[in-house]
Design brief:
The chain is an all-alpha fold and 312 residues long. The chain folds into 3 domains: 138 residues, Up-down Bundle (Four Helix Bundle (Hemerythrin (Met), subunit A)); 76 residues; 88 residues, Orthogonal Bundle (Arc Repressor Mutant, subunit A), CATH 1.10.10. The chain contains 15 helices and no strands. Helix 12 packs across helix 14. The longest helix is centred in the C-terminal third of the chain and has 22 residues.
């Protein structure tokens, strides 16, 4: 949204027109930004003593009326900070103000009145943090800054480019990296992110093409031939295990079925109670069966270790 003409003081001093003065067929469109600026002017600024008293009331008693006055008295601070970010966010300024207001509310919630700082000074950090996060999250569909260092470079890169151009220097990546104290590769990567455009996956490759970008994305599905090979390996292993099972006596077969192959195996104690033996004895039999099945499969199947690694 374009700002109204004049400096900041003029915007706050202008006389607001009431909402009902804008008929639906009016040639002059209703300006929500100008109206908001006049609305927040109604809330008085607080003296240092009033701010301290209200902050203590909210901190110690959770007085929401005190919090309300602390927030509304600093709404103009949010606008001032949001304006400083508008050259980065050439869209609706109200978006930045809204995010800044959320940061202001967080600041009031976290503010400690006993540390001796002014609320406005403390709030400015929270307001800037929320505005910066909003810009970074909404600059493009793909986030261009996910770390604190990347966010800092995002804002400083533009400023330094403009500064170098005003001095008559070409803002080359190497020079920018030296002045910003970052790696040249980081400057190049951020510059590419800032200069790139999002492309819809449904958009055609060419204007007259029937193929879209999505058609060229590799499928994450397993190829049919790999699925068939995997199925055959599982069937081979299944057949060999069934054949091995027939070589076991009844007790070992039961332990093989209910301990080694079962999805919900019986406990050692349950099997011990069934056969009147100790838990330790059941464990020993289980170990013996495991050794037997390993030796059997190694003899019956070539490359059994490779088969295990692919199936497990």
């Amino acid at each position: 949204m374009d700002l109204p003409a004049g400096n900041e003081a003029d915007w706050f001093e202008a006389s607001p027109a009431p909402l009902d003065s804008y008929p639906s067929d009016s040639l002059v469109p209703y300006d929500p930004l100008k109206h908001y600026l006049m609305e927040i002017k109604r809330y008085p600024l607080l003296s240092r003593e009033e701010e301290q008293r209200l902050s203590i009331r909210y901190k110690e008693k959770g007085d929401m009326e005190a919090a309300y006055r602390l927030i509304t008295s600093n709404l103009r601070l949010v606008v001032k900070i949001a304006l400083s970010f508008q050259r980065h966010w050439m869209r609706n300024l109200m978006d930045l103000i809204q995010e800044g207001n959320i940061g202001l509310m967080q600041a009031v919630k976290k503010f400690d009145p006993y540390r001796g700082y002014k609320l406005s000074y403390y709030s400015s950090f929270w307001i800037k943090a929320y505005i910066i996060k909003f810009i970074m999250d909404n600059w493009k569909l793909v986030k261009i800054g996910t770390t604190q260092a990347q966010r800092k470079l995002f804002f400083n890169l533009r400023k330094e480019k403009e500064r170098l151009l005003s001095m008559g220097f070409e803002p080359a990546p190497k020079l920018l990296a030296e002045r910003l104290d970052v790696k040249e590769s980081e400057v190049i990567e951020m510059d590419q992110r800032l200069g790139s455009w999002e492309v819809s996956l449904d958009a055609p490759i060419k204007e007259d093409s029937d193929s879209d970008h999505q058609s060229f994305i590799p499928s994450e599905d397993v190829a049919v031939d790999e699925q068939l090979a995997d199925y055959e390996k599982k069937e081979i292993l299944k057949e060999k295990l069934a054949a091995f099972r027939t070589t076991l006596p009844s007790k070992e077969r039961f332990i093989f079925d209910r301990r080694l192959l079962a999805e919900e195996p019986l406990t050692l104690q349950e099997i011990g109670d069934r056969y009147g033996i100790s838990r330790e004895r059941v464990r020993q039999i289980q170990v013996r069966i495991a050794k037997k099945v390993k030796a059997y499969l190694q003899e019956e199947i070539e490359d059994i270790e490779e088969l295990y690694s692919e199936l497990l």
